[in-house]
Structure formats: structure tokens, C-alpha cells
Write a structure and sequence with these properties.
The chain is mainly β and 198 residues long. It has one domain: Hexapeptide repeat proteins (UDP N-Acetylglucosamine Acyltransferase, domain 1, 3 Solenoid), CATH 2.160.10.10. The strands form four sheets. It has a nine-stranded mixed sheet with strand order 1-4-7-10-13-18-21-23-24, with no helix packed on it. The chain is globular. The structure holds coenzyme A (COA). The site of coenzyme A has 13 residues, from strand 23 and strand 24.
Length: 198
Amino acid sequence: MDGIAAIENGVRLRFANYIRLGRGVYLDQGTYLHACPNGIEIGANTIVMHGAVLHVYNFRDLPHAGIKIGRDSLVGEYSVIRGQGGVTIGDRVYTSPFTQIIAVNHVFDNPDRPFVEQGITAQGIVIEDDVWLGAGAVITDGVCVGKGAVVAAGAVVTKDVPAHTVVAGVPARPVKKIDGENISKSDRIAYYTRGYGN
Ligand SMILES: CC(C)(COP(=O)(O)OP(=O)(O)OC[C@H]1O[C@@H](n2cnc3c(N)ncnc32)[C@H](O)[C@@H]1OP(=O)(O)O)[C@@H](O)C(=O)NCCC(=O)NCCS
């Protein structure tokens, strides 16, 4: 630990020696971190909400497995992150409830063999700084979500998302560029967290 982290009761940590928590990290009740090599790293002031599961799942000694989350981020309630291919999440990334970031696929090309005998692929997932994943969004293996992008609720992301782009749907497609056009037009009332905005 790099300072004091807050860990509620009912948190389950497996392979705790491979878990690194930054100062001010908060692990809510019922979170489960399983960090078999190469471990889990969570940056300062990041919050992991109730029921979230962060599982490196590296039972095949994959060299690039692991879960790394930057600072000031939030993992929403009941979200699941699977780190076989390596999951790297930036700073100020918020995932809403029930998101899934799954850095692995089964191979199933041979119809004459059960898929469980055909191995897996695990390329890894990158979610850059300032991304917001809406509730229930699924990020599949091999994808990079660019800085400042927004993934709409329920989207299944199978391709890279360009920076500052809103994607939605199954499979997710760009629906909007975040180019500042709407700032002055918006009649939405925004509320700010202490320390952000004014
Ligand atoms: C994406 C979102 C933020 C809306 O952003 P927006 O910039 O206001 O986008 P708009 O409402 O103008 O929608 C743009 C287009 O995307 C579509 N769209 C928006 N959200 C969508 C979704 N979840 N799934 C599919 N399509 C969606 C709209 O229908 C619209 O399509 P159209 O141009 O054909 O009419 C919102 O719909 C959303 O998904 N919010 C997530 C809510 C959430 O998870 N909150 C938890 C907070 S912790």
C-alpha cells in the first residue's frame, strides 16, 4: 500500500501480495480482488464499489496478464474486470454499474473439438484517461477506448473507440463527436463533485 486505503468488511482479497493500492483507495463492501500473477494495481483515490470483481484469472501464466487502474477512477457496482490479456485503465475513468471489461476470448474455430480444448486468445484492453462507461457496457478483448470517450449504456464494444467520441449499440458504433459544439446550447443542469468544476 502506498499510504492509507479504506477497506470495508466483507472485502475478499486473494493473492494479496500481488495487490498494490494507492493512497486513498476505497474498496466497498463485497468487492473481490483476485490477483494471481501479474497482479492488480489501483491508483490513488480510486473507488471500487460494492460487488465489483477484479480477477486477473492468470491460470495459464500469460506474461501480459494483470489489471492496472489509474488514479481518481471509479469501478461501478457489480462490474467485472477480467485481466488475462492485461487491462489498463487510465485516470478519472468511471465505469457505471454492471459494466464488463473482459480481456479474453475462447477459440472455437474447430467444429470437431470442444471449445474448452481449443485454448484462448488474450490481447488486452486499454481504456484511456477520462472515459465514462455507461451502465451495462461490455468491452471485449483487443479494444482500446480512446481518451475522453463515452460508451452508452448497454453498448458492446468490439472495435477501438476514437478519442472524444460517444459510441452506442450492439455492436457499438460512433453516434457523436465530443467537439464542444453543444456546450453553450445545452440546457442541462450539471452538478459538480467537490474539487472539479466550480
Ligand atoms: C450516451 C448517453 C450519455 C447520452 O448521451 P448524449 O450525448 O446525450 O446522446 P443523445 O441522447 O443525443 O444520443 C445520441 C444518439 O445515440 C443514441 N443513444 C443514446 N444512448 C444510447 C444507448 N444507451 N443505446 C443505444 N443508443 C443510444 C440516441 O438514441 C441518439 O440516436 P439518434 O441520433 O439516432 O437519435 C446516454 O444515453 C447513456 O447511455 N447514459 C448512460 C447512463 C448511465 O449509465 N448512468 C450511470 C451513471 S453512474
